[in-house]
Amino acid sequence: MPFALQSWPSFAIAVVAAVVLAFAIGALSAAPIHLLAKRRGWTHDPAASLRRPFRILVLVVLLWIALSATLPIRDDEGRPFGIDHVALIVTIVTAAWLLSAVVASGFRQVLGRYPLDVVDNRVARRVHTQLNLLNRIAVVVIWVLALGSVLLTFPGVSAVGTSLLASAGLVSVVAGLAAQSTLANVFAGFQLAFSDAIRVDDVVIAEGQWGKIEEITLTYVVVHLWDDRRLVLPSTYFTTTPFENWTRRSSELLGAVEIDLDWRIDPDGMRERLDEVLEGTDLWDGRTKVLQLTDATNGYVRVRVLVTAKDAGTLFDLRCLVREQLVAWIHSRNPAAMPRTRLEQAEDPRVAPVTVDVEEQTTGPAADEQRAVTAPVPVVEERTPSGQIKHQGLFTGSEEAERRAELFTSSIPLPHADDDDDSRIASEEITVDHRGRGDG
């Protein structure tokens, strides 16, 4: 019995051969990609993400060839019944899948060169933000073209497309008005990605919430809050509403710790304890440490401590550590500085005054409290050889403070004594001149 090409046995053999050949081609093509990625030191192996769409595409093409050659069922023109059209649509879809996987793999390979797990990752965050957005746009374009190609395989779609193009002007106006808010978010997404206003992993304050930018899309931005909640905001929020970006230029930050204490606080002792705390932790980056009394009202003095850290999370922990250690130091070493409320009782002539002999209370809690209250206030002034009080503040007392002062403040020149004398003489001459004219 002669072998017939267009028969069911031939069809079964062709299908099995196509499947085996597709897997063999997929395995053989993955080997050189693995070798190339290993030699080049790529952070991402493209074969892992391209293996499945490539094998399916090869399998679809081989099955198309096998079915066209061996399927016994034929139409009037001698072609396999309905196979060509279906196979063409499946081929277009799988080709779009493979192309989008290739684009995504290329973007991941580029992003692998810019790691985010470094201290100063400002450039990496900008690259990740822009490339992630471009990746989404490229994938959308690929699938739109694939959908258009699939529709063009139907004979009646060409005529429909011509009529749609004729009314495209009116349709575009109506669609633009209907999707005004959506288009505004899309353009805002482009603006955010390429204006560098925010980037992935930026630390921001939005809607009063502290968090990190987790994802930027064309229409919305996801903020990962400090308590693991996600705040989803439209892209237009970041283009129309003021917000704080703590990592716009660098991740280093300066934070404050404020404590209200009694007037009998020992600032020098507190500064020494602050130095010990900062030197004993790796949370402090060594840039700035300042302790100042910034206010004295309502029976209290306000102690402000300024410290710096490499990023926002580290700064929060450092502020908590400094606050805990200083409170413990005040409680154990300087209890007289603990906050107190002082009351003065008005004298009533009908009540005899009560006299307390302080000298007799030499022991017990009352005596300890009395000694703490009557303890002398320590002298905190430290003078330089020129007689000036030595002081180190945020804007004065050190080279770094003076450089900071140049950025935020500037000196106003005062007139010299010679200038005052010249001005006074000129004023007297003008006055005499006026009097002479009046007499004349």
Automatic annotation (TrEMBL):
Its main location: membrane. Residues 423-440 have a biased composition (Basic and acidic residues). Pfam families: MS_channel_2nd. SUPFAM superfamilies: Sm-like ribonucleoproteins. Keywords: Membrane, Transmembrane, Transmembrane helix. Coiled coil: none annotated. One of its GO terms (biological process) is transmembrane transport. InterPro entries: LSM_dom_sf, MscS_beta-dom_sf, MscS_channel_2nd. GO terms for cellular component: membrane. This is Mechanosensitive ion channel protein MscS. The lineage of its organism: Bacteria, Bacillati, Actinomycetota, Actinomycetes, Micrococcales.
